[in-house]
Write a structure and sequence with these properties.
Blueprint lengths: L3 H12 L1 H14 L2 E5 L6 E7 L2 E6 L7 E6 L2 E4 L5 H9 L44 H15 L3 E2 L3 H9 L50 E5 L5 E4 L15 E2 L25 E2 L3 E3 L11 H4 L2
Parallel strand pairs: 7-10
Antiparallel strand pairs: 1-2, 2-5, 3-4, 5-11, 6-11, 7-8, 8-9
Helix pairs in contact: 1-2
C-alpha cells in the first residue's frame, strides 16, 4: 500500500516534474516527525520539522517586484488542530473528573474560552475533524495553554511561515503546481467537499508531509502588521481562493448572528470555515513530563 506522503511526492512530480523531484528529494531527506501527547488524555498530534529556506514575496518598495524572505526552520502540526485536541482545552478534559467542565483560572494571561452556546462543529463531524468557528483569540489562547501544558513554545504561524510550508518548494499557485485539476487529490474545496469539512489527513500530504494546507478549514496566521488573516482557503471556497498566497481578512459578519451581548471573542457564529494549526520553534522536543496520577485519571 502506498503511503499518503509517497503519493503526495508522486503528485508533485507529475505537475512540477523538475522542481517536484528536487523538492521531494530534499524534503524526504530532511523530514523529521515528533508526536505530542496531551497528558491526562488519549489525544496526540504529529509535528513535522520544516527545513529552513527562502520565500519570494511581493516587494512593497518595488511594485511588481519580489524580495527574498529568510525562513528559519520550525515545527508545524501535520494537520489542522482537531476537535479532539481543542475540546481538551475548552472543557478541561485533561483535569481530574470532578474539575472537568468548570471555569478555569488564567492560562499564561489568557483564559479558556467560554463554553460554546451553539453546535460549533455545525453537524459536519467532530472526532478527527478540524476545530472550526474559532476566532484568532481562541486559537492564540489554545497555543498559550498548550505551551504551559507541554513546556514547548507553541504559537500561530506567521503568514510567511505558513506560505513557505504550504508551498513545500513549489513556486506555482498550489503545492501541486498551477493546474487546478490537481487540487482534488490534496484539498477539500467547493467543488468536492459537499459544503462541509472532512476528517483531517484524508487527502494527500504535500512534500513536507503536511495535510490539508489547501482547503478544509482556513487557518489563522499572523501577518507583518500584527493583524490576523485566514490562509489556505476552505471547504466552501473555489480553487482561486486556495492558492498559497491567498489571505482572507476577517469580517464583523463572521460573528453577526451571535446573540450574546457582548459578542463572544472566542467563537465565530458565522465562520464555520475558520480553524488553525500550530507551530513551534526549532528546538528539541522536551522530555515527557511525569504527570501526577490524579491528573491521568481524568
Amino acid at each position: 500500500m502506498h503511503s499518503p506522503i509517497a503519493s503526495a511526492l508522486a503528485l508533485l512530480a507529475l505537475f512540477c516534474p523538475a522542481q517536484g523531484e528536487e523538492v521531494a528529494s530534499e524534503a524526504t531527506q530532511q523530514r523529521e516527525k515528533t508526536t505530542e501527547a496531551l497528558a491526562g488524555t488519549t489525544v496526540s498530534f504529529d509535528m513535522i520539522r520544516i527545513p529552513a529556506g527562502t520565500l519570494a514575496v511581493e516587494d512593497a518598495a518595488a511594485p511588481g517586484g519580489t524580495r527574498q524572505v529568510e525562513i528559519a526552520s520550525f515545527w508545524m502540526s501535520a494537520t489542522e488542530v482537531t476537535w479532539d485536541a481543542y475540546d481538551v482545552f475548552v472543557f478541561g478534559l485533561d483535569l481530574p473528573l470532578a474539575e472537568q467542565g468548570t471555569v478555569q483560572e488564567e492560562v499564561d494571561a489568557h483564559t479558556r474560552p467560554t463554553k460554546p452556546y451553539m453546535a460549533t462543529d455545525r453537524g459536519f463531524g467532530h472526532a478527527g475533524y478540524p476545530a472550526i468557528s474559532i476566532s484568532h483569540q481562541g486559537a492564540e489562547a489554545y497555543c498559550a495553554w498548550l505551551t504551559k501544558k507541554t513546556g514547548r513554545a507553541f504559537r500561530l504561524p506567521t503568514a510567511h511561515e505558513w506560505e513557505y510550508a504550504c508551498r513545500a518548494g513549489s513556486t506555482a499557485a498550489y503545492s501541486c503546481g498551477d493546474d487546478e485539476a490537481g487540487l482534488d487529490a490534496i484539498a477539500w474545496h467547493a467543488e468536492n467537499a459537499e459544503r462541509k469539512t472532512h476528517p483531517v489527513g484524508g487527502k494527500q500530504a504535500n512534500a513536507f508531509g503536511l495535510f490539508d494546507m489547501h482547503g478544509n478549514a482556513g487557518e489563522w496566521c499572523l501577518v507583518e502588521d500584527g493583524k490576523h488573516y485566514l490562509m489556505g482557503g476552505s471547504f466552501e471556497e473555489n480553487a482561486r481562493r486556495l492558492r498559497c498566497v491567498t489571505r482572507r481578512e476577517p469580517s464583523r459578519m463572521w460573528n453577526a448572528s451571535d446573540p450574546q451581548i457582548p459578542r463572544s471573542i472566542w467563537w465565530l457564529a458565522d465562520a464555520p470555515f475558520a480553524g488553525f494549526r500550530v507551530v513551534a520553534g526549532d528546538a528539541p522536543p522536551p522530555a515527557p513530563q511525569q504527570e501526577p496520577q490524579e491528573a491521568q485519571d481524568g
